[in-house]
Input
Amino acid sequence: MKKCFLDLAKTKEIISKFPTPIHVYDEKGISDNASELYDAFSWNKAGFKEYFAVKATPNPAILKLLRAHGCGLDCSSLAELAIADKLGFKGSDIMFSSNETLAEEYVYAKKLDAIINLDDITHIPFLQKHAGIPEKICLRYNPGGDFCLNKDIMGRPEEAKYGLTRKQLTEAVRELLKLGVKEFGLHAFLASNTVGNDYYPLLARLMFTTVCELMRETNARFTFVNLSGGIGIPYKPDQQKVDIYKVANGVKEAYDSIFVANGYSNIKLFTELGRYMLAPYGGLLTTVIHFKHTYREYVGVDACAANLMRPAIYGAYHHITVLGKENKPLDHVYDVVGSLCENSDKFAINRSLPAIDYGDILFIHDAGAHGHAMGYNYNGKLRSAEVILKKDGAFELIRRAETLDDYFSTLDIYDEFKRS
Output
C-alpha cells in the first residue's frame, strides 16, 4: 500500500479552486528528504552538495525550497540556465552538464561562472573559441562496456552518447592544464533508477580510483567528484526505498580506502538527484469522467499522457490510489486511460483497483519528477497547473494552468490568432 500525502477532504478543497488535472507537491516530504540526504553525507567535511536536476521539476517554488536546504542546480540547457539566473543562483551553485551543446549555452554558463561539465574532448576547442576556458572545469567519464552490479547489467555505457573514454580523460586534462585550468572535477552517470543500496558505492570506487590515476598521470588538482543521479525510488508498492544512510556509508568506505589512504582527504562530493529528490513527493490528481465496457473495462479520466507521459513512452508503472476508497477491496480490473488520439495513452493496464464511480478522484503517485516537466501539447492539450501543499496544511499555486491564448501565442503572426 502506497500512502498519499493528500486525503480526499484536502483534495476536494484544492480542486475546488484549481480543477483537475493538476500536479500537487508535498513541501514537508521534499524538505525532510533533502535534510536526510545532507545528514547522510555530512561526513564529507570537504563540502557535500546536491545539484538538483532542474529537468526533473523546473518550478521556481521547488528550486527555492531546495536552495533553502543547501542545494544547487544541475542545468542542461539555455532555459534551465536562465531559470537559475532569474532565481539568483550563481557560480558554484550551478553545474552545467549538457551534450551537443550550443555556443550560446556555453557563453551563458561561463557568464554565470557555472561549473561547466564537458561531455566530449572535442568540446575543449569549441568552448575555448566561443566562451573561453574557465579555471575550474569538470569532465564527464564514460568507462565503456557494461556497468554491472552483482552480475546484473545496470547500464551499457558503451552504448551511451555521453562522456569521454578513459584515454581521452588523460588527454583532456593535459590539454586543459595548458589552457590554464587550475581545478578539476570528474562526473559520471552509468545507471538509472537503481533501487538497491550498492550503485553509488560501486560507482564511487570506479571514480575515486580514476581520479587518483589522473592526478598521478597529470599532476592536475582534482577538488570534487560528481556521482550524478541514478538513485531510484520504489514506484511499485512491494519495492523498498533506498536506504540513503547505507548508500552514504558505502561511499564513505570507498572514500576512506581510496582517497584518504592516498593522502587526498579534501575532495568534495556532489550528487545530481532529480527523481530521488522529488518524484515521491508529487502526484497527479485526475477526475473520472467516462467508462467504456468493451473487450476490457476502461476508466476515462480528464488527465492524459500530456500531463504524465512516462507510462505512455516507457510503459512505466505509476501506482494509483482512488481517494476515499483506500481501504476498499481491489476487486475490479481496469485500464485507466486519457483522451489523446494515441492507444498508448494509458496510466494503467489491467490494474486491480476498487470499484470506481463517476467523479472519483485518482491520485497518480510518484509524479513529482519527470511529470509536469515532460508535458507537451499534442492534440492541443493544455498543460496543467502546479500546487504545493504547505507544511501547515495550506496550499498555493506555483504554476498556473495553460490557456488557449498560451497555446496560440506563437501563432500571433496571423491576424486570426492575435490577442485582442
